[in-house]
Every structure is written in C-alpha cells, then in structure tokens.
Amino acid sequence: LLDTDTLSAIQKNNPVAIGNANAYLATYPDLILSLMTRYEILRGLKAKQATVQLAAFEAFCMVNTVLPMTEPVIVRASNIYADLHRRGALIG
C-alpha cells in the first residue's frame, strides 16, 4: 500500500522509489493506494494548479487500485500500527 510520500517520490521519478515499484510490479499486477493517499495527492496538485501532473495522476489511478476507506479498514490499519509500534518495527 503506497503512502503519499512514496507515491510522490514515484511521481518525481526518484530512482529508488521507481526501482521499488518496478520490483513490486514484477510480482503483482498493479500498485495500490488508499483513498486518503489519493486525496492528499489531488489536493497538492490542485493547489499548485499542476494540470499536467494532475492528468498523469488521474491516468495512474485508472490503471492501479485505489482502496476505499471504510470502518473495517481503519480498525485493521490501527491494529497493524499498534502491533508494529509495540514491537518497535514501524514502517517508515
């Protein structure tokens, strides 16, 4: 699940982020982001009036998976975070 920082790095053609995305895509059919990440990217691009990047992002979302934010998703995500936090294994 891509977070906003990682997706931004991919959009900016960061070689490490692109390499990680390509490695993931070698095994899985598409990239996955949450509706919250979509919102954060959209608000930033719209605030900058970055129409070219906005069109590219919309195309990206059409060929990848955008997961909805539902109550079960929020509860599960908070459980995963709490477990990782207790183990000292938070994901950057």
| Helical segment count | 5
- What's the rounded overall pLDDT mean? 94
Number of strands: 2
Unreliable runs: none
Please give the share of residues in helix: 55-70%
In whole angstroms, how far apart are the ends?
A: 12 Å
Shape: globular
User: Structural class of the secondary structure composition?
Assistant: mainly alpha
Radius of gyration: 14 Å
Largest sheet composition: 2 strands, parallel
Beta-strand percentage range:
5-15%
Listing every helix as H and every strand as E from the N terminus to the C terminus, the arrangement reads HHEHHEH
Topology:
Elements: H1 4-11, H2 15-25, E1 32-34, H3 35-47, H4 51-63, E2 65-67, H5 71-87
Parallel strand pairs: 1-2
Helix pairs in contact: 1-2, 3-4
Quick description:
The protein is mainly alpha-helical. The chain contains 5 helices and 2 strands; from the N terminus they run ααβααβα.
Annotation keywords:
mainly alpha; 2 strands; 92 residues; single chain
Write a structural description.
The protein is mostly helical. It is 67% helix and 7% strand. It has a two-stranded parallel ribbon. The two termini are 12 Å apart.
